[in-house]
Amino acid sequence: MDSKISIDPEVSRSWTLPASVYIDPGVLERERKEIFSRTWQIVGRRDQVSRPGDFFTAELMGEPLLIVRDQAGELRGFFNVCRHRAGPPAVGCGSRKVFRCGYHGWTYGLDGRLLNAPEFEGVEDFRASEFGLVPVRAEEWGAWVFVNLDKNAEPLIPSLRELPQQTERYKLDLLKLHSRRDYVMDCNWKVYIDNYLEGYHLPSVHPSLNRELDYGKYETETYERHSRQSSPIRGPENEATVERRYKQSAGDMAAEYFWMFPNWMLNCYPDNVSLNIILPLSAEKTLAIFEWYFPESVLKTDAPETTIKFSDEIQLEDGHICEIVHRNLKSSSYTRGRFSVKQERCVHHFHRLYAESSLNRA
Ligand code: FES
Ligand SMILES: [Fe+2]
Predict the structure, then answer these.
(1) Does 104 lie in the same domain as 170?
(2) How do residues 296-323 score in pLDDT, each as one tens digit?
(3) Are strands 54-60 and 93-95 parallel, antiparallel or unpaired?
(4) Best label site of 88, 111, 169, 330, fewest CB within 10 Å?
């Protein structure tokens, strides 16, 4: 990006991000380095590494990673790259006492120390202690394991600010994964985030969801690096003739949508929570990972299937509008837009965080 982006701190005066940052492939390279490699990113679940020796491998911004629970019960993260000639110390997931590289058999402890380099006698100035796996910051919260590629990043939990307390009632650490679906969309990742961050499109894009939520009472709150949108779920006293998903719900129930800068969200409903992770595949292609979590007691009932079907319908509606918006952002007629003060505070907040991110400081 040649010129710095400026977003007015007052939503009523502000313009949106310029269309060029959604379509310029050069921008994505910088976002990967300056945004995605400097924020806590979800790479897996805690239940994949619950006992000592449990491990899984993952990839974040092209970096191969290894996450393991060590003998002492501590969670550790490493680059999954052998210090010999860059072979793979671990593959897939499972449980191990040591990691043995799949290329020439160097073995590493669960703490990353190099334990054995076969047939390495006579190598000058070689000290095994200097050839441990390179560590990466890995921490855990709720049901998830996070990695931050920035060595100097603030620890995960304080970085989440009010979020742990705001989601306490959903008991996130007790929820169980039911299923995952991946959606690939032809749009920039920010188009999807923008769309997520407002309920303004609800009446036009999601007629069925709009029947569940009380659009007139839709609320938004922004915090330092996250935001919360909420809407009461209509109570039975408003029972319409249409079939509704939360027919039985009491009037005080709410749907809460939490977004954390830059790219993950928790959608909290009375009986389930879904996680979304939004990852850029290219400037014009985005992967949205959806995972649905339920309390153990609900897992074996019919409720999950109904929830997922409903959620899938909404996601397809969102994907469809995002693809059209992305195509239109490329039109010579459009440069940038304005925000609804009432409905688009969270989008404006995202654009501000984006503009203030290190992307702009270079
Ligand atoms: S690359 Fe791992 S042992 Fe050679
Ligand atoms: Fe939507």
Answers:
(1) no
(2) 999 999 999 999 999 999 999 999 999 9
(3) antiparallel
(4) 169
**Is the CB of 84 inside a 6 Å radius of any atom of ligand 1?**
yes
Query: Is ligand 1 within 6 A of the CB of residue 64?
Result: no
Q: Helix axis angle, 189-196 relative to 303-329, nearest 10°?
A: 120
Of 158, 180, 206, the residue that ends a domain is 158
Does residue 111 lie in a domain region? yes
CA atoms of 276 and 192, how far apart (whole Å): 11
Domain tally for the chain?
A: 2
Query: 24: domain range?
Result: 20-39+162-360
What's residue 233's pLDDT? 81
Structure tokens at 67: 């996450």
Domain end residue (candidates: 103, 135, 158):
158
pTM, entire model:
0.94
Q: Is residue 152 part of a domain?
A: yes
Hey, whose CA ends up nearest to atom 3 of ligand 1?
Answer: 104
Ligand 1 neighbourhood includes 53 CB (under 6 angstroms): no
Nearest ligand 1 atom, CA 82: 2
How many Å lie between the centroid of ligand 2 and the Cα of residue 274?
14
Q: For residue range 240-289, what is the model confidence (pLDDT) as tens digits?
A: 444 455 544 445 578 999 999 999 999 999 889 999 999 999 999 999 99
